[in-house]
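Before relying on records like the one below, remember that each one covers exactly one chain. Contacts with other chains, cofactors or solvent are not represented anywhere in the record.
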Amino acid sequence: MKMMRYSLDQLIKEADKLPPIPQAAQKALALIRSPESSASALSRVIEMDQVLTTQVLRWANSAYYGMENRISTVQQAIVVLGLEIIQELIMTYSFSDRLYKPLPGYELQRGELWQHALGTAIGAKLISKKLHLKIDEDAYFAGLLCDIGKLVFEKLLRESEINRSEWGQHSFLELERNSFGIDHAMLGAEIARRWQLPENLVTAIAHHHEPQSAENHVLLVAAVHVVDVSMMTLGVGIGIDGLQYPLDNAALNRLGMTFEDLFHLIEQVAEQCAKAKEMISIV
């Protein structure tokens, strides 16, 4: 393997080249998290962005929600959908473009990382709901963003000379660390920290492949881990590294789940993913 170690600053500079979250979406997400948020204030922020406005109205009028009367204003849409759903949809839409692109460095075709991220997000939220963990939205966002470090690493993987015969001998995290001095999970966590995301999301992203190393937010980390591995086992967003991440049975036990529970969960994820993809258009 050709060693190509990078400093964290160099990797962060690469991360800075990622398209930013739309300003209106950033402001809307911040406002939703504020205890003083209101539908009228949130609607004014969303209406600053014509594309986001169109999407919100499209979501509210989709067959999925079955409204009898057409929703014509953003404020009406917020009241109908509720802040939780609006937050989830804005977050998903904000990251859909970058997650939908092909990642040749990981041998992921267009849309494969997106499908994996969406499935992990939905599955992690379902676990939170089923087990009454009361971290539904955090679980969704952590699942959605757990692999954002790959967006930076995939270009570096294309430029490096990694001996593929070594893939079966080492975990892919080890290969990343040996090549770049850091793995995609830790880089993703640092990107999330730079984006000023909550610490629990940073922790979940950092430890989603090695949940036993997490000292805090262990249930959130465990939820993201078991769904992430399950999606790859099913061949969703598997890439060149997908079979290199084993399931940590301790994480499954920590959640009080069995393999049968996991099987039923994945069935629900597949059903909800199909509905979600109908609602969120990818540009």
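The two ends are 37 Å apart (CA to CA).
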